[in-house]
């Protein structure tokens, strides 16, 4: 019989390791390696289906990261926003109040995704997403081909990991957008200059600290922290803290050839 305490400690260790190894993911191939390594250990699956963009309006880019090579027709059946699996899963997730979506043998499932999953031969699925306030940079992730029907602890795992999945996919999107802009103009990206204090504030934002906590750490008022964050958002041309963290990581990775570098000035 398994020791519940020992299993809980193992789960925490796996979560921390999965989070730690996700931080340096900036490029698509890095995400693939992470998904097939750390994420695979934490939440075993055959295929990871992702979407990034405006999920409510159906204006998003979908990607597939699979352990096996998929034929173009099979991949299109998964990623097409109108007729593919990704659109149906997102629709069912939204209809379910954006709670984690579970599909598996023996589960009576409402929604249009269940029939298509059976049709393409996927038995067990776990999906969840993260909706940004303005919607343009929301993300969605579907783990297809789990070894068994997702249990409560699998649902808890994807909920705990969602912020890191979200930020990793945003960093990839930002990095590819920067590269695309450079190729189209033939110039390097416009440098973004943040002051030493702004970098310090953003570092603590990345660690999940509140304005009050950052103020205590840096010995400044919460209002001063708020003003720094507003300046950071304007300089990085983003609308919230999570996007600012992802944007700066992508810019630094672009400058360093693909490695996300965080350092205090």
Describe this structure in words.
It is a single chain. The protein folds into two domains: 174 residues, Beta-Lactamase; 64 residues, Arc Repressor Mutant, subunit A, CATH 1.10.10. 54% of the residues lie in helices and 12% in strands. It has eleven helices and five strands, in the order αααββααβαββααααα. A five-stranded antiparallel sheet has the order 2-1-5-4-3, sandwiched between helices. Helix 10 packs across helix 11. The longest helix has 34 residues. The C terminus is likely disordered.
Going by CATH, the architecture of the largest domain would be 2-Layer Sandwich
> Given this structure, which CATH class of the largest domain is correct?
Alpha Beta
Q: Overall 3D geometry?
A: globular
Pairing-aware structural class of the strands and helices?
alpha+beta
How much of the sequence lies in strands comes to 5-15%
Sequence stretches where pLDDT stays below 50 over 5 or more residues: 258-265
- Under CATH, the topology of the largest domain can be stated as Beta-Lactamase
The CATH superfamily of the largest domain is known as Transcription factor LuxR-like, autoinducer-binding domain
Order of helices and strands: HHHEEHHEHEEHHHHH
């Amino acid at each position: 019989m398994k020791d519940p305490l020992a299993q809980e400690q193992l789960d925490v260790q796996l979560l921390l390791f999965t989070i730690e190894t996700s931080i340096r993911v900036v490029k698509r191939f890095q995400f693939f390696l992470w998904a097939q390594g750390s994420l695979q250990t934490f939440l075993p699956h055959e295929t990871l289906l992702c979407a990034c963009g405006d999920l409510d309006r159906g204006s998003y880019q979908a990607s597939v990261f699979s352990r096996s090579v998929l034929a173009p027709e099979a991949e299109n059946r998964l990623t097409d926003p109108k007729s593919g699996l990704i659109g149906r899963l997102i629709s069912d997730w939204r209809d379910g109040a954006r709670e984690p979506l579970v599909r598996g043998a023996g589960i009576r499932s409402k929604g249009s995704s269940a029939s298509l999953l059976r049709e393409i031969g996927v038995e067990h699925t776990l999906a969840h997403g993260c909706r940004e306030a303005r919607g343009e940079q929301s993300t969605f992730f579907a783990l297809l081909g789990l070894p068994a029907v997702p249990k409560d602890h699998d649902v808890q795992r994807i909920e705990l990991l969602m912020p890191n999945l979200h930020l990793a996919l945003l960093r990839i999107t930002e990095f590819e957008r920067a590269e695309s802009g450079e190729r189209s103009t033939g110039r390097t990206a416009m440098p973004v200059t943040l002051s030493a204090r702004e970098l310090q504030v953003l570092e603590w934002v990345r660690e999940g600290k509140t304005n009050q906590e950052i103020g205590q750490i840096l010995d400044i008022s919460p209002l001063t922290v708020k003003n720094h964050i507003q300046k950071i958002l304007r300089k990085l041309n983003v609308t919230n803290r999570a996007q600012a963290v992802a944007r700066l990581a992508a810019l630094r990775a672009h400058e360093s050839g693909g490695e996300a570098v965080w350092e205090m000035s």
